[in-house]
Amino acid sequence: MEIGYLGALLMGLFGALHCIGMCGSIMGVLTFSLPPRIREKPATLFSYLLWYSAGRLLSYAVAGGLAGAFGAGVLVAISPQYGHRLLLLAATLIMLAAGFHLAGWFPGLARIEKAGAPIWKKLEPLGRKLLPVDRPWQALLYGMVWGWLPCGLVYSALFIALAQGNFPGGMLFMLLFGLGTLPAILLTGVFAERFLRIARNPRMRMYAGLLLITLALFTLILNWNYPNLT
Amino acid sequence: MNRMTDKPQLLGDSPEFTALLRSLQVASATDVTIMLLGESGTGKEQLARYIHENSLRRDAPFVAINCAALPESLAESELFGHRKGAFTGAVSDNLGRIAAAEGGTLFLDEVGEMSGAIQSKLLRFLESGEYQRVGDTTSRQANVRVIAATHADLLAKVEEGSFRQDLYYRLNVVPFQVPPLRERSGDVPLLVKELTRQLAARHGLEPPRYTAEALRQLESHHWPGNIRELRNLCERLLILFSGRTVDVGNLPPEIRIQGRRRWNFTLPDSGLRLEELEQELLRQALDKAGGNQSRAARLLGLSRYAFIYRLKKYALL
């Protein structure tokens, strides 16, 4: 399943480029709302940006672990013999959908964001209480809240994490997905405008989508005969 | 549907729009300077109000100023205020918009249209919170959150020298892209219904019904004027077809015929030479822009570099 994990990393890496319009602006807001004493020291500022992202990744990992554990139950319920193939097929389809979404050929995928809107409605006021952040623990907690922001691509990754069929597998998948998002999200705090321009470039998005589509097909072909997914 | 606050009312259910609202929710919990980027008519002022209404400054004033509508001679006095007798016609003290927004939010719409002199003064205010009224010798302090908006490519304006680079970086701290109506999937039918309902209530008329085909046609229109254009159309159709049914045939020709196409151009049966057409368009764009390359590039939807590259390619430079 290594290629699946590579897929998680790439999905995060290129997916973040697509989502930079929303998450990039949030990162910008969080960066510039830090007190000047933090912003003036690059090392301190960077550590806060890492705390935000650590919190976000922690939420992804927990959600991924839970999805993986749930997937294990689904796998047994469907069929211990063929369940993994069905889940693999479902995961591939979702990764393909994410690829088409990234390329701009399937904007409808974003509709699944609605599923998370009620959770976000409850969490957003909690996050609001943590702002303005001036302690690392606040940044970590805010990052954890931010991790639950409705996002079509995160939900797609979660569905694939479900297909990992166990808690650690699901957790690792989402952690790698989150790590993939780090370069774009961390750098947008500094290069917001440039990143927005790249993210809006349809050709860039198309290449990212095509890469993910290719990867999804590879994952399916290479794992079809494996006895289980992990 | 998102109707998060009664004032301002923001309508939309598309993922593109709801994602923006969620980001603005986060932004409203902070005091960071925000830049709203988007085409005319996309509702930037309503979004600025939304940020204000959801911020800790909600009980203080929200003051909007359209920089494009301000005559240069009045801009300074309008923004920073003036003392009685500071200039001919200054018959009384004027606090100015910055002072009027004390404790609240100052919304600078079409900030790219500001003159150079005002840009310098605004920069000073953004850096230190200090400003001077016209005819006053003492500096004043103001505690105001600034939200700016523009439909222009500010970076191109910086490159052509009509917008200060330092002000650009001061204002463009956190840019938010407001999606044009054509990119808000599924929002057109919803907006038609809600705008028609509101307008019908205001005019005391029975709202018209839209056929599915008419709604599909409206959805496929490019909407260069965005929500403003849609609202005007809804009002027009309400008055013309109150209580009746609006079908495709009742829609204006530019919507009925063109659909997503933005131009009235048809390829001649005899064909054409694309390179010649491109050269002609480059020339026309330069003429229309009075020789200004950045403006000409924008007319053709190109970056300045791409435009210059084409000029060089055809030896037009």
Short description:
The complex is a heterodimer of chains A (230) and B (317). Chain A has 230 residues and is mostly helical.
* Count of domain modules of chain B: 3
Could you tell me how far the N terminus lies from the C terminus of chain B, measured between alpha carbons in angstroms? 51 Å
CATH superfamily of the largest domain in chain B: P-loop containing nucleotide triphosphate hydrolases
> Uncertain segments of chain B of ≥5 residues (pLDDT<50)?
1-8
What do the pLDDT scores of chain A average to?
A: 82
- For the biggest β-sheet of chain B, the strand order reads 2-3-6-1-7
Distance from N terminus to C terminus of chain A (CA atoms, Å) equals: 6 Å
The CATH architecture of the largest domain in chain B can be named as 3-Layer(aba) Sandwich
**Helix-strand pattern of chain B:** HEHEHHEHEEEHHEHEHHEHHHH
Counted beta strands of chain A? 0
Describe the structure in your own words:
The complex is a heterodimer of chains A (about 230) and B (about 325). Chain A is mainly alpha-helical and about 230 residues long. In chain A, about 80% of the residues lie in helices and about 0% in strands. The relative contact order of chain A is 0.25. Chain B has 14 helices and nine strands. In chain B, the strands form three sheets. Chain B has a five-stranded parallel beta sheet. In chain B, strand 4 (about 130) and strand 5 form a beta hairpin. The longest helix of chain B is centred in the middle third of the chain and has 17 residues, at about 185-205. The termini of chain B are far apart. Residues about 1-10 of chain B have low confidence and may be disordered. The interface of A and B includes residues 25, 30, 107, 111 and 124 of A.
